[in-house]
């Protein structure tokens, strides 16, 4: 039971130190040297008091609540499957950017995480197609899409929707791919594309919501499909 209040106090202390590091707070105490002269004071950096800086006022006026730290976010992803080091790196650095009001960088890093997840799905889909001719046709379409992520994603989603054996044979799961995965992926891709151009307007709240979208739709649905592919391949003759 002692762990919980200690953990809470530690989190609060870490947040205070982070705000000091960012310049939002400053550990200082002002002591008036003359009660009748408000502008005459001494300062002491060792008193354990903190004040809000001018930058801190601006920071608070534009603050966006980030409901998770990187560890918490990664633990959410783990509920479906252990994320690889590349995903961990993208989301950890992205959330750090977001907490420091660097929404443009956070959006681009999230897009990279989504693109990496798509690359895993493409490879898994290719390896699960049983027909050599069908596999070659899928690979050719991916190759023709080249580096255009939107097209690579659509080739993959359409293949999952149209072929038997690549997703569980249930209308519910097919709708998850057709409606949730497609929409979520393209929304993250579009936000990251906008962020890559300095003329694009990026709202911190919108970026935060897309991190939630990745954790609730893109990552879990993709990982469930890949897990299904692993199961399918495990029953194929060696």
Estimate what percentage of residues fall within beta strands.
Answer: 5-15%
Record the strand order, biggest sheet. 1-4
What integer is the average pLDDT? 84
Counted by DSSP, the helix tally is 9
Structural class call reads mainly alpha
- Biggest sheet character: 2 strands, antiparallel
* Low-confidence residue ranges: none
Which word captures the global form? Answer: elongated
Number of domains: 2
Q: How much helix, percentage-wise, in residues?
A: 55-70%
The string of secondary-structure elements, in order, is HEEEEHHHHHHHH
Taking the alpha carbons of the first and last residues, their distance comes to 52 Å
Strand count: 4
Radius of gyration: 24 Å
Topology:
Elements lengths: L2 H20 L2 E3 L1 E4 L8 E4 L5 E3 L1 H8 L8 H9 L6 H15 L3 H26 L3 H14 L3 H14 L8 H25 L8 H31 L4
Antiparallel strand pairs: 1-4, 2-3
What does this entry look like structurally?
The chain has 238 residues and is mainly alpha-helical. The protein folds into 2 domains: 3-61, no CATH class; 70-234. 68% of the residues lie in helices and 6% in strands. The protein has 9 helices and 4 strands, in the order αββββαααααααα. Strands 1-4 form a two-stranded antiparallel sheet. It has a two-stranded antiparallel ribbon with strand order 2-3. β2 and β3 form a beta hairpin. α3 packs antiparallel against α4 and α7 (149-162) runs antiparallel to α8 (171-195). It is elongated. The N and C termini lie far apart (52 Å).
């Amino acid at each position: 039971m002692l762990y919980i209040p200690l953990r809470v106090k530690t989190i609060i202390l870490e947040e205070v130190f982070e705000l000091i590091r960012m310049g939002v707070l400053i550990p200082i105490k002002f002591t008036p040297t003359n009660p009748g002269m408000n502008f005459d004071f001494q300062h002491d950096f060792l008193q354990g008091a903190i004040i809000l800086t001018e930058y801190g006022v601006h920071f608070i006026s534009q603050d966006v609540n980030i409901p998770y730290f990187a560890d918490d976010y990664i633990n959410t992803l783990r509920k479906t499957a252990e994320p690889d080091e590349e995903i961990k790196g993208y989301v950890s650095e992205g959330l750090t950017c977001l907490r420091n009001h660097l929404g443009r960088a956070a959006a681009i890093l999230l897009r990279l995480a989504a693109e990496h997840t798509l690359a895993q799905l493409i490879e898994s889909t290719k390896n699960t197609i049983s027909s050599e001719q069908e596999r070659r046709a899928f690979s050719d379409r991916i190759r023709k899409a080249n580096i255009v992520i939107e097209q690579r994603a659509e080739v993959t989603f359409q293949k999952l929707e149209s072929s038997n054996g690549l997703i569980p044979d249930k209308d519910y799961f097919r709708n998850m791919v057709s409606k949730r995965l497609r929409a979520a992926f393209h929304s993250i891709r579009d936000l990251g594309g906008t962020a890559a151009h300095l003329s694009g307007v990026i709202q911190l709240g919108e970026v935060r919501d897309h991190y939630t979208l990745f954790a609730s739709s893109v990552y879990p649905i993709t990982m469930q499909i890949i897990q299904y592919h692993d199961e399918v391949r495990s029953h194929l003759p060696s």
